[in-house]
Amino acid sequence: MNNQKILIKNGLIVTVNPRMDILRGDILIEGNRIQSVDSRLSVKDTEVFYADDFIIVPGFVQTHIHLAQTLFRNMAEDMSLLDWLSSVILPGEANHTPQSLRLSAQLSLAELFRCGTTTIMDIGIVRHAEVLFESIAESGMRAVCGKMLMDYGEGPEILLESADKALRESLDLLKKWHGYGDNRIRYAFSPRFVLSSSDELLKQLSELARRYDVIIHSHASENKTEIELVRQRFGMSNIEVFDHFGLTEARLCLAHCIWTNETDRKIMKKNDVKVLHCPSANLKLGSGIAPVPDYLNRGINASLGADGAPCNNNLNIFTEMRLAGLIQKHLHGPEAMPAPDVFRLATIEGARALGMDKEIGSIEPGKKADIVFIKRNQVHSIPDENIYAKLIYTTQTADVRHVMIDGNWIMRDRQLLTLNEEDIISKIKL
Ligand SMILES: [Zn+2]
């Protein structure tokens, strides 16, 4: 861990603290933590960073990502979920070598840093999952990640493993990586979805997730055909299946949750199920629009993620924030999803979903120093009477100038310091 002190002077700080304070002031960072946040701090013998021209925000948290899929970007267009999966995505994942997977992860991480994302939850891959952990560790990203689990149904044979083998490998990875780098990397059990999971796997996961106190990360109720197939197999809804096998007793994080009924939502509320909302992917695959305002009204946690690059087609949190606001206004009127609420989904609510809200998701004393500097005065984004509207509707990726994770600079003046962008691009072009 580094021991340096940095004093950030005179930035416009969007704290995302419980009062949602926005203040002009200073931030003192010591090692990997925020020491103080105040309108004026004076500290001796400290590196000073002048931030007069910047809006300083907590690093963005994207709770549903597929690092393994970014090499399949722009390859799977105009298809619905199950065709998209079987014709392009699963064969692509089956064909990954450790080398291609590393490049896919590095390309993703570079893109994620460039839009100010400092924490991700990645749903992993069946084969060579270790490469994802290694790539995350080297890059400096804060992440929850797991080996993807598939032991049932159709799919390339090489991706279908026995529950025993898959869980043994998961536990090896968990023991090696959970807590790595002063807790920068955490493990999650990652069954792809119930259609690719045996009853036995689901039962065992419930027990294991509680024993090791880790997240279960999966997809659910994304597409109408998917929920019909789930009902044919189990005679119940997708959310009821998770509940039936006891997975709701663990910290359960489910991507999408578009097609849920009243019973499902009661189960979700009662068990504090976290919804990982991916608006671009939901629109692009024609899946539908998740009832996020209803979830929020009920007190169900929702957060944002770009999902995989082949159904988005990028990993840009600004696009996800913008769409998370706009698609609900279309359905529920202009008052739906005010900008501060959307901004919370991309920061503190993402942290809450991952059980990290005491550590990240806001700029407050004692929290980890995951901080993003956004250029304030740009022709496409001034004037800025409403800072949250500016951040979710007008800010562009290129306005993110500097990124810090755990008190370490990851990007300065848009130069990535932990990844060699030119090298990654040249290898992919070949
Ligand atoms: Zn996904």
Give a structural overview.
The mean pLDDT is 96. Strand 10, helix 6 and strand 11 (215-220) form a beta-alpha-beta unit. Helices cover 38% and strands 22% of the residues. Helix 8 (238-244) runs parallel beside helix 9 (262-270) and helix 13 (339-345) crosses helix 15 (387-394). The protein is of the alpha/beta class and 430 residues long. It starts with a strand and ends with a helix. The protein has 16 helices and 18 strands. The chain is globular and about 65 Å long. The strands form 2 sheets. Strands 1, 2, 3, 4, 5, 15, 16, 17 and 18 form a 9-stranded mixed β-sheet that branches. The protein has 2 domains: 5-58 and 362-416, Urease, subunit C, domain 1; 60-353, Alpha-Beta Barrel (TIM Barrel).
Task: Name the features.
single chain, 430 residues, alpha/beta, Urease, subunit C, domain 1, TIM Barrel, 9-stranded mixed beta sheet, 9-stranded parallel beta sheet, 16 helices, 18 strands, 22% strand, binds zinc ion
Looking at the chains present, what oligomeric state does this protein adopt?
Answer: single chain
Each distinct ligand: zinc ion
Whole-number total of structural domains: 2
Q: State the name of the first-level CATH class of the largest domain.
A: Alpha Beta
Alpha plus pi helix count: 16
- Level-2 CATH architecture of the largest domain: Alpha-Beta Barrel
Helical amount:
25-40%
Radius of gyration: 21 Å
Strand content is 15-25%
Major β-sheet profile: 9 strands, mixed
Give the CATH H-level superfamily of the largest domain.
Metal-dependent hydrolases
Structural class: alpha/beta
Note the overall shape. Answer: globular
Which regions are unreliable across 5 or more consecutive residues at pLDDT < 50? none
